[in-house]
């Protein structure tokens, strides 16, 4: 498990997402997993990457079910919430904005997404990239992506931040498998 600390804003694009309009004014990077964009800012989210080797007791060959245990770990750390166990739930904005959709293993509180999880698989295992929102204002992300202004209004309630100290949240994450603490 790795905790990623953000020291400056960056726009993180999904693997197949088109480049945003030029002159965003911040770093633009691409993750190798799919999904929409995430705006990462210092203090805005808790970012954790978890690697599960193939053959580990947490390894699940079914990609859709493989997120479940990790979603449950986040629910335990948050002290509540719901793990989405159904099919990918897409919205008109989810191809562009990660937190606009809801995938297996992702966590909601009061119906709003609070933890997003992406997965990248290789023969050696699976890398899960997790982001727990501490705040949610879609307007800056909408502007960076060049989406219509109405998107910010429509995205305002699909996600929400959790009011929790990042160190406390990380301390409450249960052990995440062999050798992980």
Write up this protein.
This protein is of the alpha+beta class and 181 residues long. The protein has a single domain (2-170), classed as 2-Layer Sandwich (BirA Bifunctional Protein, domain 2), CATH 3.30.930.10. Helices cover 18% and strands 27% of the residues. It has four helices and nine strands, in the order βββββαββββααα. The strands form two sheets. It has a six-stranded antiparallel β-sheet with strand order 1-5-9-8-7-6, covered by helices on one side. β7 (107-109) and β8 (112-122) form a beta hairpin. It is globular, with a radius of gyration of 16 Å. The model has no long low-confidence stretch (mean pLDDT 91).
Task: Map the helices and strands.
Blueprint: E1 2-4, E2 10-13, E3 27-30, E4 38-40, E5 45-53, H1 68-78, E6 82-83, E7 107-109, E8 112-122, E9 125-133, H2 138-145, H3 150-155, H4 166-172
Parallel strand pairs: 2-3
Antiparallel strand pairs: 1-5, 2-4, 5-9, 6-7, 7-8, 8-9
CATH T-level fold name: BirA Bifunctional Protein, domain 2
Helix content: 10-25%
CATH class, named: Alpha Beta
> Which spans of ≥5 residues are poorly predicted at pLDDT below 50?
none
The count of β-strands is 9
CATH architecture: 2-Layer Sandwich
Structural class: alpha+beta
CATH superfamily, called what? Answer: Bira Bifunctional Protein, Domain 2
Helix and strand string, N-terminal first?
Answer: EEEEEHEEEEHHH
Shape: globular
Mean pLDDT across residues: 91
Characterize the largest beta sheet: strand count, sense, and whether it forms a barrel: 6 strands, antiparallel
How many discrete domains? Answer: 1
Report how far apart the termini are. Answer: 8 Å
Taken as a percent bin, the fraction of beta residues is 25-35%
Physical arrangement of strands within the biggest beta sheet: 1-5-9-8-7-6
Count of helical stretches? 4
Return Rg in Å: 16 Å
